[in-house]
Fold this protein.
Amino acid sequence: MSLRTILAPLRRHGLMPGLVFLQVALACAILCNVFFLAWQRLEPMLAPSGVDADNLILIDNLAPVHGIWSAAESQEAERVLRNVPGVRDASSALGLPMVSIVSMDFNAQGPTKSAVGVNVYMGNGLIDTLGLQLVAGRDFLPGEYRPFGVGAGDGNWDTGISQPVIITQALADKLFGTAQPLGALLHDPSDKDGHGYQVVGVVKHLLRNELTLATDGRADYTVLLARNIGNTAMLSYAIRVDPTMHEVAMRGVKQAVKRQFGERTENGPQALVEWYKDRRDEALKSSRATLWLLLGLVVAIIMVTLAGIMGLTGFWVQQRIRQIGVHRALGARRIDILRYFLGENVLIVGAGVFLGMGLAYLGNAMLMRYYELPHLPWTYLPIGAVAMLLIGQLSALAPAMRAAAVPPVVATRSL
């Protein structure tokens, strides 16, 4: 059947097709943005952590009521925690996975001159303690660690050479492409007097602790710096335990924390001693709630669109029984009638989808302006378009089949 034959009745009776067209355009615009927002929430949930999640304990929010923690206190607590039964390794750190109370970042710039924001984890022996998988290069050497403190002087760091750094595979791919990252230099564009960072190792995965930035392939944009933590107002520890001694290790760690820090933290902030997997579940709780809300919205849009197109198409078919009868009397087969209405629906829905993609882009621009949401990638437009085309055809299938099932003798009675 020719396109002209399909378009002729649409031009004569444009109300019903127009309503379907507008409904599809609006639904497509909403779906494109909802799919994008849902993926923003889902991506951090699916991103691999890179750590030994089942056997990792995190300690943070260790803040003294008065003064700061000295380097000696930090190192002594680290030694005590290592000696707890069931503990394999312990590291003091600033910046840890799922610990967002202390979050450090800088812009890393590679040979391509493109700078990307990365999260920074500082500590002693974090590769072993976190259970990271080293895929290239080496761990930090003992002589490469520098003192680090917040709110206190740490001496002159400027040794005239670049600092060693360990990066993730995703960050290496972003900054170096197919080039060899080991031995290459990274720079922070804001640090004009620095000597840069020399890549000495690459780990497979390490999830950043700013989960709001763990989207668009940036979940692994993380670096490790060789630092001995001390002279700081806040301490954090990562502890890796024996898989067969979880309860013993957790009980011992809590007792050790109370002995080492209880006197100076009494009447202050409550220290947090939790399993990594519990911390991750809590950190992603709001994302899961938002995701379920968005999925509910998607289902509601689909159901409303299905019912709307089905009802309008059914009414449109009922109004054209006479036309169907003529075609059937002239020899049109059931499959021909079915193809006719489905083809007509494709034209209407396709036109609505085309408008809907434009509305999706404009809607995202408004959301960016008033709610600071990220830019909608163009790849989500065809995703929403395909979804609406499938929904449209599914909605029109039942009315089209009813039209095809009308026998010629019944249809011609309306002549």
In short: Residues 151-158 have pLDDT under 50 and may be disordered. DSSP finds twelve helices and twelve strands in the chain. Residues 64-268 form one domain. The chain has two domains: 3-45+286-414, 64-268.
